[in-house]
Amino acid sequence: MVCSTIRSSRMPVAPLTLSSCRSPKPGVSLNAQPSRLTLSTLLLALFVALVLSLPPLVTGAAGASETDSDSVSVEGAAAAGTGANSPSADGALDAPLLQWLVLGPCQVRLPVFSDSTRTGERAQEVLGRRYLDLSKLAPVEGEKLSWGPGVSLAWEKGELADDVIPFGLAGHDTSTVGVAYVACYLDSPRWQKMELVLKTRQRTAVYLDGEEVSKKTEATRETEEPEEFKTELKLPRDKHVLLVKSVFDSRDSLAEWFVRPYLRMQSEALPYVPAVSLDPVHRFSFKDMEKMKSVRDVAASPDGKLVAVVVREVDTQRDKYVTLLDVFDARSGERVHSIRMGDRISEPEWAPDSKSMVFLSDSPGEGADLWLLDTATRGLEKIVAGEKGPAAPRWSPDGAHLFFTSWDPQPAEKDERSYEKLEELYERWGYWKNKSHLFVLTLQSRTRLQLTTGEFTVQFYELSPDGRTVAFLRSVPITERPFFETELWALDVESLKSRTLLTERFDISRLSWSPDGTRIAFIGECSVGTKDDVHNRYHSSLYLLDVSSGAYEKLSRDSGPSLGAELLGVRWGRDVLWWDGNRRLYFVATDKTRVRLYHLDPAAPERVREAELPFKVPYYFDVSADRKHLACVGTSVSDHRKVYVVDLSKSKTVEVFDPARDAMKHALRARVQPVDFVNSDGVTINGWLYYPHDFDAGQSYPLIVYYYGGVTAAGETFSREAHWFAGQGYFYYVLTPRGAAGYGQEFADAHVNDWGGLSAKDVMEGVENVLSGKSFLDRERIGCYGGSYGGFLTMSLLTQTDLFRAAVALYGISNIASYWGVGWWGYLYSDVASALSFPWNRPDVYVKKSPLFAADKIETPLLLLHGTADTNVPPAESDQMFAALKVLDRDVVYVKWEGEGHGISSKPSSSRDSRQIMLEWFDKQLKGQPEAWDERWRQE
Q1: Cα 182 from Cα 186, distance rounded (Å)
Q2: 440 burial class (0-12, 13-18, 19+ CB within 10 angstroms)?
Q3: Which residue among 3, 407, 662, 690 is least enclosed by CB atoms within 10 Å?
Q4: pLDDT band at 413, cuts 50/70/90?
């Protein structure tokens, strides 16, 4: 017997051994299987000659051949795990699959009182049951699996006989049904379709990546030739788990139990035959993204011994995101509590004695419930039920009372009119009608009191160290820019006497009382919103207020970092500002590409010291009551997000929880290289270049460029999207153009009234810098994309350069004037991004800088993605650009998501589809691979 295989150039796979081509085992009859031994040598030679004579493969959009990076060779076939190719009746090529892991056979009994008693019915019932958790299946040779009480199985390398997987006889116990699984990995170098063909008499089900794709529900009689059971496989560029489940019922009177598997493809698909292996290691994929759990909150117990973590995961069956609550030992990382309740758990808050905790969860009816957890007894008690808009639970220092905010009770009668009157700009926002106010609950008696009321919402509050005073913030609309004033109030919780501590025209986000209660530190915008202020106020500063006098001073320098954790994909957490005794004030700040922890003495604020943390980017901060233990999430460009506890007194760090451990177990990360450069104006621009996993300096690769361009910088964080694109065979470049906070006030101010000027210039120069000296990057195959302001920047770039071969604008702004008037935050955001500029006095901004008014300059194929329920950037922004480009007869496609808001991510399927469509667009335009794109829209 002659065996030949096809090897992919993509991933290392175990070489095929002679055991894959052994003669049939004694006692295994294969007389019904057609032999190909006499033809295989001749056919292989013919196919090699055919491949060598094939014309060049499909040329990409720029004329580059995809044989550079996506082809496989027949000469290296031994590693692919497929056997000699032979033609089928319709001229297609058949490639036997010779590498398999086998689980079983195993005998299963039907449940007691099962109705499936007739021949065939019980086998079909077994075929339909999912005994394995296929969503997490990643078989490894030698891996053991507990099948049930007293039964243990292991994945073993299959011993094939003449391309056949024999399972032996299942015995003649008519009370059981035999089940066996075989699995392998198919590493596809590009998106493609082909057939899996199985010759078998048994009932069979085929699964690809955990999803059932076909099923053979009837057994073939012994007297008949085993028919070809065909399954169409759609294989994106990924490593896929192929699983075949075979069921043997002795009542079928079959003497043999086997399956002969092979792939069937057309000759033009031969260079892209998937590599077959038994190795689960793979490039980081979108499946990994969906499997990665993410942290949504971290809360350290006051004694520093426990950490509560809110975790979000994907429920694929219901197409929903769900959150749960886990509690870990801060020293060992052991999980000590796990709470699953409804679809959403949030805001855990420890009691001062660390013995109990409150948290919020969805109510079975409307609103949310507030629960009390006793960590010693594990007892759960609902203490507030069906609350509308509850948030921010806080314990009094003595643990006797619980403060929280909630919506002010509304009148029972509703206004049934189908119209409403607006007299103020803020009335456009529906949430403004739901006023959030402060309440206190006495735990012993469950007495509940309302502490504030009125027209304006309590936005943030903080209890004084003695628990007697609440400092709270509220925003009050005004008619002049910046259109809101911030008020800081002090409220005596017993007498309800209150006084205003501060009223200013800038936003305040966080407060922290000094231990003696005489001062309040706060984080606010960099400057007061005066009539002539044109600073980018998203760059935040540190302030200190004297409670008795109301006088305040700025402690931080405008040229330094921006207060808070302000990088893309990063959240602040609970504590970004706290006191260590009366002397030192700790604060978190964004310093260019990193987030750092600093401290200073307010008496000498110029002497700022950094508290070293062992992460490039920490966030979701929470500090224990003794100020010694800091819980946070830590990440870097190459390491995914994990929860840590840092002992600040000993500089000791413990990894408490890795939410992505299972998802990343076999996933390969991309190589990441910093690519900072100095632009033509002498400003340093930070960026990173992600390499594809199969990088070969002698080949040519497409490049995808990502940017935001708004007020938030990209940082040294783990970017799932970047590693995913690298796994799809692209170089991926991300950079932070001028205008973002964290680089000092001057850098941030470049955002004001710029709208695609300096930011677009930085992107174009950054791309040229990356291309310089890198012959493996194909200048003719560059794509770009961004979302929100980044979507605007995409469209703006296309009016200024022909550098890009394809582009994607995600929920972007095309008309600055319409966004100013219609966007949810339009006129408020524009008060910073277009300071002192309005549609009536600055057509050079609102018209000249709007991509819509330069649409005739766009020649690059553009994909627009937008949700119909997006109020932040209304879909009319994409509607207008789509209409303009269609009238101009340009290459543009517009994909809309019904009911989706900003980000197109309210459901896992929406997030997945929008990103996959973006990839398919780039594959079509940059790789000359339109198959996935065409397949998605084929039925239309």
Answers
A1: 13
A2: middle
A3: 662
A4: low
3-state secondary structure of 914: helix
The amino acid occupying position 35 is S
pLDDT at 115: 64
Residue 225 amino acid letter: E
CA 629 to CA 299: how far, in whole Å? 11
The 447-450 sheet, strands edge to edge: 391-395, 401-407, 436-442, 447-450
Tokens of 927: 């790789």
129 closest CA partner among 215, 230, 197: 215
Give pLDDT, residue 649.
86
pLDDT tens per residue across span 53-107: 333 333 333 333 333 334 333 223 333 455 545 666 567 889 999 999 999 998 8
In the chain the first and final C-alpha atoms are separated, in Å, by 48
On whether the CB atoms of residues 817 and 837 are closer than 8 A, the answer is: no
pLDDT at 57: 30
The amino acid at 357: M
Average pLDDT over residues 560-569: 95
pLDDT at site 81: 55
Integer Cα distance of 827 and 831 in angstroms: 6
For the chain, the C-alpha Rg in angstroms (whole number) is 32
Phi, psi dihedral angles at 287 (to 5 degrees) = -60, -40
Torsion angle (degrees, nearest 10) of CA 335, 336, 342, 346: -80
Nearest to 595 by CA among 644, 648, 632, 643: 632
* Residue 726, burial from CB neighbour count under 10 angstroms (0-12, 13-18, 19+): buried
Q: Where would I find the H helices in 219-306?
A: 286-291
Q: Residues 840-896: pLDDT tens digits?
A: 999 999 999 999 999 999 999 999 999 999 999 999 999 999 999 999 999 999 999
What mean pLDDT do residues 658-674 have? 95
Q: What is the pTM of this model?
A: 0.90
Q: Where are the alpha helices (H) located in 412-569, listed in sequence order?
A: none
DSSP per position, 241-252: EEEEEEEE-GGG
Supply φ then ψ for residue 410, to 5 degrees.
-100, 155
CB 188 within 8 A of CB 238: yes
pLDDT band at 116 (very low <50, low <70, confident <90, very high): low
Question: CA 86: distance to chain centroid?
Answer: 43
**Residue partners of 566: CB distance under 8 A and separation at least 6:** 538, 540, 590, 712, 713, 741, 742
- Distance from chain centroid for Cα 915: 10
Q: What letter would DSSP give residue 343?
A: S
Give the dihedral of Cα atoms 364, 369, 372, 373; nearest 10 deg. 40
Distances (CA, A) of 436 to 296, 499, 505: 22, 19, 21
As a whole-number percent, the residues of the chain with pLDDT over 70 amount to 88
Tokens of 177: 């049904």
pLDDT at 581: 83
Contact 923, 730 (CB under 8 A): no
Distance CA 632, CA 803 (A): 41
- Biggest CA pair distance of the chain: 99
> For position 100, what pLDDT does the model report?
96
How far is the C-alpha of 43 from the C-alpha of 779, rounded, in Å? 41
Q: How far apart are CA 314 and CA 720, in angstroms?
A: 15
105 prior amide bond cis, ω within 30: yes
- The beta strands (E) that lie in 792-833 are given as 806-810
